[in-house]
Known about the structure:
This protein is α/β, with parallel strands linked by helices. 46% of the residues lie in helices and 16% in strands. β7, α8 (208-217) and β8 (222-223) form a beta-alpha-beta unit. The longest helix is centred in the N-terminal third of the chain and has 21 residues, at 53-73. It is globular. It binds nicotinamide-adenine-dinucleotide (NAD). The site of nicotinamide-adenine-dinucleotide (NAD) has 25 residues, from α6 and α7.
Amino acid sequence: xxxxxxxxxxxxxxxxxxxxxxxxxxxxxxxxxxxxxxxxxxxxxxxxxxxxxxxxxxxxxxxxxxxxxxxxxxxxxxxxxxxxxxxxxxxxxxxxxxxxxxxxxxxxxxxxxxxxxxxxxxxxxxxxxxxxxxxxxxxxxxxxxxxxxxxxxxxxxxxxxxxxxxxxxxxxxxxxxxxxxxxxxxxxxxxxxxxxxxxxxxxxxxxxxxxxxxxxxxxxxxxxxxxxxxxxxxxxxxxxxxxxxxxxxxxxxxxxxxxxxxxxxxxxxxxxxxxxxxxxxxxxxxxxxxxxxxxxxxxxxxxxxxxxxxxxxxxxxxxxxxxxxxxxxxxxxxxxxxxxxxxxxxxxxxxxxxxxxxxx
Length: 360
Ligand SMILES: NC(=O)c1ccc[n+]([C@@H]2O[C@H](COP(=O)([O-])OP(=O)(O)OC[C@H]3O[C@@H](n4cnc5c(N)ncnc54)[C@H](O)[C@@H]3O)[C@@H](O)[C@H]2O)c1
């Protein structure tokens, strides 16, 4: 493993960062536990060919912090963590590597619970679970919740309804033009909710087959060549559902949409973009607030999965988004700041109760 130039003690507020190496299976992994103030840290395992150990470390530190805020705002009894496995999953992912990783997660004694993320799937969680008790997002065949994108999309739609209500007075997208950038696992489910609600939907994706699938399913949906074209057209709502960093200075300047609400994590390209959005009169529904449906789904599995219970909880994203907008109005801050404050307040108020000793 190459040495890191990031000082983990300076880089964030993380409780614990664990590096693991199993040379025979090729496992090189980092687990970052950002906070356990509200419960065990939950977050997926990203399996990705990072250019360097530093890149992997930076990613896991950022992502684990985001999970803390997502779980806190969603009202879950969970903290925030994340793991990365370095390497190309297409070439190095084996049963032995996944089981070596399972033993690493087991060694943390439940302080960190893992799930799927980019490059890992429910079947991988099944292998990890052969060595480890702290795994969720398992396959349906093993009693798991399966694909989390179903409730992620449902939750984003609920957040978008709350944004529509705050903007136009009614919690519906009927008659509005919504641009969806990225119609992968989450984006294509989101399109279905929007079409059913009576929205005009325009999509784009770098993968032509993903666009074709959506156009074949929904006759009224249109597509444009790329995200630049989507952002430049007349829209009511822009829904980034591809990668992070979608809201750059240039995009915010160009957008005609008055609502931004999508599934992608870390949409703000840099701190300060939330203010620019506000100055342009664009209502931004904070990413981790509206995309918590998948986390809610895998968290439910820890209690024995009930899709109906998880769906009902994900429906609560409507109220949560509403309360974020209300707090933003009351405090005179952008919704992204209000969401952070609400999450931090819950961590303080509920986390403090751990200080009351109980014999359990
Ligand atoms: N899957 C979940 O449950 C979940 C939960 C929370 C957040 N998210 C986030 O939502 C986003 C989408 O997740 P997903 O599971 O649907 O992933 P996915 O890989 O299935 O879909 C992403 C889609 O975006 C497309 N894409 C990539 N770059 C693009 C670009 N520059 N322009 C247009 N399209 C582009 C890809 O071709 C793909 O079809 C990600 O940012 C993810 O982190 C997903």
